[in-house]
Design brief:
The complex is a heterodimer of chains A (84) and B (882). By secondary structure, chain A is α+β, with helices and mostly antiparallel strands. Chain A has one domain: Eukaryotic RPB6 RNA polymerase subunit (Alpha-Beta Complex). Helix content of chain A is 25%, strand content 31%. Chain A is built from 2 helices and 4 strands; from the N terminus they run βαβαββ. By secondary structure, chain B is an alpha+beta fold. Chain B has 6 domains: 144 residues, RNA polymerase II, clamp domain (DNA Excision Repair, Uvrb, Chain A, Irregular); 116 residues, no CATH class; 169 residues, Barwin-like endoglucanases; 119 residues, RNA polymerase Rpb1, domain 3 (Enzyme I, Chain A, domain 2, Orthogonal Bundle); 159 residues, RNA polymerase Rpb1 funnel domain (Topoisomerase I, Chain A, domain 4); 45 residues, no CATH class. In chain B, 36% of the residues lie in helices and 14% in strands. Chain B contains 25 helices and 30 strands. In chain B, the strands form 10 sheets. Chain B has a 6-stranded mixed sheet with strand order 9-15-14-17-8-16. In chain B, helix 15 packs across helix 19. Chain B starts with 18 loop residues before the first helix and ends in an 8-residue tail after the last helix. The chains are: A alpha+beta (84), B alpha+beta (882). Chains A and B meet through strand 4 of A and strand 30 of B. The complex binds magnesium ion and zinc ion (2 copies).
Chain lengths: 84, 882
């Protein structure tokens, strides 16, 4: 069971860890603060899967999610990692 | 202007009232269960003691000296002879009894464990959420409840059980409220935080009442009926019971009556106090009025749809509003609403006198309030002078007040034509359920509007009522006119097409006007055109020396200039029309060249022509087009007349024979299939059992029968038939309905399956056991016109009931879901940059709908209609004009 990488599943949208350097740039283009972004728990299965690639992801980091959107084609959104 | 500063609530804390506090806030100790004496004066120390506030105008409060509108009301109190548990805290009492030691009062956990929990609360004090605190409390409770030997005093505790609603037992022995109270008194303050109480404001023993607060009289006012009879509030009735039993309990206790009697009275007191708080406590018979109606006590005042929250706080009744029955009026624009004179006289707009409206308002005041029997002329009901004093305008003082009128007065003028109002029909399921209309004051007593507006309100005229709200400020009027006017809501945000359009007879009429381009005699044509605003008539044609108009020319009168359009109408996809030309609607330069106008052209939510006019010429022109269209339709149909009757379903004998043949054939085919099945001649279809395979083959055979009957009916019933006209033009019904009336009704199903439930191995006792033939499983070969035989009738009713149940279930479920959605989404907003934010400015969507497109400005969900742009820009070669 645990062998399966959920990020590879077609129903799971792409999740990317935003590098610390990038964060500020992204926030600036979006015109928002990190606190305003939707949250994602560190315990979220997707974060756990990402951690296998990126190493530990501490709360406060940003995740970029690329989804298929019915209205836009492809939509990017961002989440801030929070504890637990 | 006064600036109001709103203060944020940082914290909200709930506490318990201590007996001392109840006594301290009490204005009077109530000892008499009576209210008024024979002369109608409140009895001293009774339930209506004037120390608890005043309810009659003119009287003064004995406690604060205030009059009715000044005195806030004051509590009284009752000293209970014996303590009684508070029903609202039963759960808490139970858990405290279970988790504390009955001997020493400590929480039944070892000191180090308790310390650990205290530490947990302390460590996280600043970022501990209420939920997390509650979690710790319930953890302590569940852990301590299981302990038998107290770690502090080594007493062996017994298990406490709750005997609903209010009795606690320890190993079968009853624990009296007095004993509970004594136990709770032993619990040290230090332990309380782990029980969930703050010792500064609450002690557990306060959950057992010894003093009972009596609410102020204005919480439970006496109602005086017209007959002079007095009627007391339900709460007062309940308080009478409490005092009466309390008195008897005290007497018996003091006289040293037998324990049994005292216990009975004590239980009775507990009952009355329990039902005083909540008269729907499970396990307690509700206290009733003499009439048998159950009393509305404290909890009932707050709870549910009719409770304080949902009925008085979330939803309030408002002024400047009216409600009455609705009826249709095709001569009103879609932007208008007809308001009955009677309502217009009552509904007012408050205007401040300025130099701009001075003369107008003066004239209005002179008109006075007006009389019902007179022709409607807007007048004035009240004026407010600058000092705030109010003058009621009557016929007598109208002229005098008009002369005295000054700048700055407020004038409550009656409704006049052109006022902007909001019009609403419940259930308000989408934003088009409340739109702004322009007022037309009309005689009679109903609200009236154009039939095209039925769709957004989902209204019909079988007794529907609607609400109307008069806007009071210029800002509100401007906002409503720009955002909420009917014409601004043409395009639905649900699917990006026009939600309003022609319906029923509009479609029938214009279809008849344009189908095969009929010749309309001169006088008829002129009559029809008199319904619309035109300044010239189309050219006439001469046939056999008589002058005629052509139907399509008349229709073209209402088309805006420069419409160029070609699309398929409803006839287009059917081969009903032999040449197939009527189904192609072609408009060139604002002239209808070919085709019959039908639902696809002007119908609601699918009218291509309507949609085109709206997008190309804007909402105002769209509204004008629809106004003219509805009037023209009324003109046509009132001249030609149109009706349908049962003889529309008459088919020739030859057709009848064919229909019977189709029915019999289908039944035989099913029998054959069953025979084959029994002989094992049917092969399994993939994914199905043999029975399922048979079932699907039978269903297919039977539905083919209905299709065939539909074909036969269509063949014999032509365009000279009213029902066919309605079905083909899309005005109402379809060919299948017609086939069911004239031919075969077809299979009646439940949940998509043939009917199979009922008696053992058969649906009805009219059939052989094991019969799975067409008729035994709900096939109806009769038509509605012929009538059904008894078994067919039964199956038809069963199938019909499924639809009704579905609707009932669906509406209640979707209503609840909508409530939850609205509550979750109600305070989201779209920022200036197009982000969707909540009240904390957290991001919900980075761009509204992810593409930043308002669906009502979209083209069927797409941001841009590329085809349309190409046609408009590059001309005829690509399907456009030039
Ligand atoms: Mg109705
Ligand atoms: Zn008072
Ligand atoms: Zn103990």
């Amino acid at each position: 069971m645990a062998k399966y990488n959920i990020l590879m599943h077609e129903m799971v949208p792409e999740h990317w860890l935003v590098s610390v350097k990038e964060e500020e740039k992204v926030l600036k283009t979006l015109g928002v603060t990190k606190g305003q972004l939707p949250k994602i728990r560190k315990s979220d299965p997707v974060i756990k899967a990402l951690e296998k690639v990126e190493g530990e992801i501490i709360p406060g980091r940003m995740i970029e999610i690329v989804r298929k959107s019915r209205t836009r084609g492809i939509a990017k959104l961002y989440r801030t990692v929070i504890g637990e | 202007m006064k600036v109001e500063i709103s203060k944020g609530i940082e914290e909200l804390k709930f506490a318990l009232l201590s007996p001392d506090e109840i006594r301290r806030m009490s204005a009077v100790k109530v000892i008499t269960p009576d209210t008024y004496d024979d002369d109608g004066y409140p009895i001293e120390k009774g339930l209506m003691d004037p120390s608890m506030g005043v309810i009659e105008p003119g009287l003064k409060c004995k406690t604060c000296g205030g009059k009715v509108d000044q005195c806030p009301g004051h509590f009284g109190h009752i000293e209970l002879a014996m303590p009684v548990v508070h029903i609202g805290f039963i759960k808490e009492i139970y858990s405290i009894l279970s988790s504390t030691c009955s001997n020493c009062g400590r929480i039944k956990l070892a000191d180090d464990k308790l310390k650990g929990y205290f530490q947990k609360i302390k460590d996280t004090a600043d970022r501990l959420s209420d939920i997390e605190y509650d979690d710790i409390v319930s953890e302590v409770e569940s852990e301590a409840s299981d302990v038998v030997i107290c770690p502090h005093c080594h007493f062996e505790n017994q298990k406490v059980a709750l005997d609903k609603p209010t009795t606690f037992r320890e190993e079968g022995k009853k624990l009296t409220p007095k004993e509970i109270r004594e136990r709770f008194e032993k619990i040290p303050n230090e332990d309380l935080p782990l029980i969930g109480l703050d010792p500064k404001v609450a002690r557990p023993e306060w959950m057992v009442l010894t003093v009972f607060p009596v609410p102020p009289v204005n919480v439970r006012p006496t109602i005086t009926l017209e007959t002079g009879e007095r009627s007391e509030d339900d709460l007062t009735h309940k308080l009478v019971d409490v005092i009466r039993i309390n008195q008897r309990l005290r007497e018996n206790r003091d006289q040293g009556s037998p324990q049994l009697i005292i216990e009975d009275l004590w239980d009775l007191l507990q009952y009355h106090i329990t039902t005083y708080f909540d008269n729907q406590t499970p396990g307690t018979p509700p206290a009733r009025h003499r009439s048998g109606r159950s009393l509305k006590t404290l909890v009932q005042r707050l709870k549910g749809k009719e409770g304080r929250f949902r009925s008085n706080l979330s939803g309030k009744r408002v002024n400047f509003s009216a409600r009455t029955v609705i009826s249709p009026e095709p001569f009103l624009s879609i932007n208008q609403v007809g308001v009955p004179e009677k309502a217009a006289r009552e509904l007012t707009v408050t205007e401040t006198v300025t130099e701009h409206n001075f003369e107008k308002l003066k004239e209005l005041i002179k008109n006075g309030p007006g009389k019902e029997e007179d022709v409607y002329k807007p007048g004035v009901n009240y004026v407010y002078r600058t000092d705030g004093s109010r003058i009621k305008i009557s016929d007598k003082n109208a002229a005098e007040v008009a002369e005295k009128m000054e700048m700055g007065w407020q004038v409550e003028r009656q409704m006049e034509n052109g006022d902007i109002v909001l019009f609403n029909r419940q259930p308000s399921l989408h934003r088009m359920s409340m739109m702004a209309h322009e007022v037309r004051v009309l005689p009679y007593r109903t609200f009236r509007f154009n039939l095209a507006v039925c769709a957004p309100y989902n209204a019909d005229f079988d007794g529907d009522e609607m609400n109307l709200h008069v806007l009071q400020s210029q800002e509100a009027r401007a906002e409503a006119e720009i955002l909420m006017k009917v014409q601004e809501n043409f395009l639905s945000p649900r699917f990006g097409g026009p939600i309003m359009g022609a319906i029923h007879d509009h479609i029938t009429a214009l279809f008849m006007l344009t189908y095969k381009n009929p010749l309309i005699p001169l006088d008829a044509g002129l009559h029809i055109m008199s319904y619309i605003d035109v300044d010239k008539t189309p050219e006439t044609v001469e046939v056999d020396g008589k002058k005629y108009f052509r139907g399509r020319d008349i229709f073209s009168m209402i088309l805006p200039e420069g419409v160029n359009l070609e699309f398929k109408g409803k006839l287009g996809d059917k081969s009903l029309d032999p040449n197939g030309t009527e189904g192609t609607i072609k408009i060139e330069n604002g002239k209808l060249i070919n085709g019959a106008i039908d639902e696809n052209a002007i119908g609601q939510s699918k009218g291509v022509l309507l949609d085109y006019v709206l997008r190309k010429y804007g909402n105002a022109e769209g509204a004008k087009f629809l106004d003219n269209l509805t009037r023209l339709a009324a003109g046509v149909i009132s001249f030609t007349g149109f009706s349908t009757g049962i003889d529309d379903e008459d088919v020739p004998g030859e057709a009848k024979a064919q229909l019977r043949e189709v029915g019999n054939e289908a039944v035989q085919k099913v029998e054959k299939l069953i025979e084959n099945y029994k002989n094992g001649l049917i092969g399994m279809e993939p994914g199905k059992t043999l029975e399922d395979t048979l079932e699907s083959m039978v269903m297919k055979a039977l539905s083919q029968a209905r299709e065939k009957s539909s074909e036969i009916a269509s063949h014999y019933l032509g365009m000279d038939n009213s029902t066919v006209i309605m079905a083909r033009s899309g005005a109402r019904a379809n060919m299948m309905n017609l086939a069911q009336m004239a031919g075969i009704i077809g299979q009646q199903s439940i949940r998509g399956q043939r009917q199979h439930r009922g008696y053992t191995n058969r649906t009805l006792p009219h059939f052989q056991k094991g019969d799975i033939g067409a008729y035994a499983r709900g096939f109806v070969s009769s038509s509605y016109k012929e009538g059904l035989n008894p078994t067919e009738y039964f199956f038809h009713a069963t199938g019909g009931r499924e639809g009704l149940v579905d609707i009932a279930v669906r509406t209640s479920r979707s209503g609840y879901m909508q409530r939850r959605l609205i509550n979750a989404l109600e305070d989201l907003k779209v920022s200036d940059e197009g982000k969707v934010l909540d009240t904390e400015d957290s991001i919900i969507q980075l761009e509204y709908g992810e593409d930043g497109t308002d669906p009502s400005r979209s083209f069927e969900g797409e941001s841009v209609d590329v085809d349309y742009l190409i046609k408009e820009m590059f001309g005829k070669k690509y399907g456009g004009k030039q």
